[in-house]
Design goal:
Blueprint lengths: L2 E4 L1 H4 L16 H10 L4 E3 L7 H8 L7 E5 L10 H18 L4 E6 L10 H13 L3 E7 L3 H10 L4 E5 L6 H4 L2 H7 L3 E5 L19 H16 L4 H11 L5 E5 L3 H14 L14 H4 L9
Parallel strand pairs: 1-2, 1-8, 2-3, 3-4, 4-5, 5-6, 6-7, 7-8
The protein binds NADP nicotinamide-adenine-dinucleotide phosphate.
Length: 295
């Protein structure tokens, strides 16, 4: 089972398609039980995901087989100083307490762009130190751009790299960055398989600025639909088909959504379709960091 669960939706009202708001905490034990039964082991969280870490701390059954991935706090300023590096270490210890854990499976630099700043070695030093102390099994980074991957590989040997990828966003595959990470034995976690839920929404409801992507998506989906493949199956099928991807992190707001994902996941593997036809290349529409201007 390559599926992992992202939990930003459990701590904040997150997502361009999100009409339901933050997932009620009462839903989380059900989601965790369903996930565990289906063989999901990876849970992705972060201190900047609102109450996500705290909710997981309260709701995770003990013992459990989940592998927790959390992230560093955002660092203000243009330079990574000793003080900001120390603040990252302190915040990680707070994350452990909030998650009610003595260690986590992985700690990722939340914003790969921080590795492009002067003093980034200090940030890497904090992660390597926590790994030496066995408070984290793996260290790594969550990125938005190829340049952040290049810089990370210059600075250290990440165990895990989280990348955005989906049917419409195959840029890091085509650029060779995914292959470069695999050559270095890096575990790849993929997020935004549903582009924050947009790909699973009726595209007529997409904001007007997404029109170029909508036309492209609809022409590719027309072929997939003729082959009996739904948008959810296509989105998952793309991730399942890429053997380079180790974990497919999906965000869900309800156990209904989770169950739909299982069913589609099981079906997707046996429904081949041409994923190449979906690849799109407009950073402005593919990178949610730019979306505030793309309404
Ligand atoms: N920089 C980073 O490190 C970073 C950035 C973003 C995300 N993440 C991680 O990645 C995880 C996934 O987030 P994402 O943004 O990448 O989202 P995503 O997985 O691409 O999309 C998640 C959204 O898809 C919709 N959805 C899920 N199942 C569905 C179903 N069965 N039918 C219809 N809609 C469904 C839900 O939206 P609605 O129910 O609202 O429609 C949900 O919020 C996050 O939880 C977080 O852990 C990390």
């Amino acid at each position: 089972m390559k599926l992992g669960l992202g939990t930003v939706q459990w701590g904040t009202a997150y997502g361009i398609a999100n009409k339901a708001g933050q997932t009620p905490e009462s839903e989380i034990p059900i989601l965790l039980a369903d996930a565990a039964n289906a063989g999901v082991r990876t849970l992705d969280t972060a201190p900047s995901y609102g109450t996500s870490e705290a909710a997981l701390g309260r709701q995770l059954p003990s013992p459990n087989e989940f592998r927790l991935v959390t992230k560093t706090i955002p660092i203000p300023g243009d330079t990574i100083t000793d003080a900001s590096a120390a603040a990252v270490a302190d915040a990680f210890h707070r994350s452990l307490a909030t998650l009610r854990q003595t260690s986590v499976d992985a700690l990722l630099v939340h914003h790969g762009s921080e590795l492009l700043r002067p003093g980034a070695e200090r940030l890497v030093g904090v992660l390597e130190n926590l790994k030496k102390q066995k408070l984290v099994k793996k260290i790594g980074v969550s990125i938005y751009t190829a340049a952040e991957i290049d810089r990370a590989l210059e600075l250290f040997s990440p165990d895990v790299v989280q990348i955005p990828a989906s049917l419409v966003d195959q840029r890091l595959l085509r650029s060779g960055h995914v292959a470069a990470l695999k050559r270095r034995g890096v575990e790849i976690h993929v997020r935004s398989l549903f582009l924050q839920g947009l790909l699973l929404q009726d595209s007529r409801e997409w904001p007007p600025a997404f029109e170029p992507l909508r036309r492209h998506w609809e022409s590719a989906m027309a072929i997939a639909r003729r082959a009996g493949v739904s948008a959810l199956e296509a989105a998952l099928g793309f991730g399942i088909g890429r053997t380079e991807f180790d974990i497919l992190l999906v965000g869900v707001c309800s156990s209904t959504e989770l169950r739909q994902i299982w069913t589609a996941y099981a079906a997707a593997a046996s429904r081949p379709f041409d994923a190449d036809a979906f690849a799109f290349d407009d950073e402005r529409l593919l990178n949610p960091s730019h979306w505030s201007t793309a309404k």
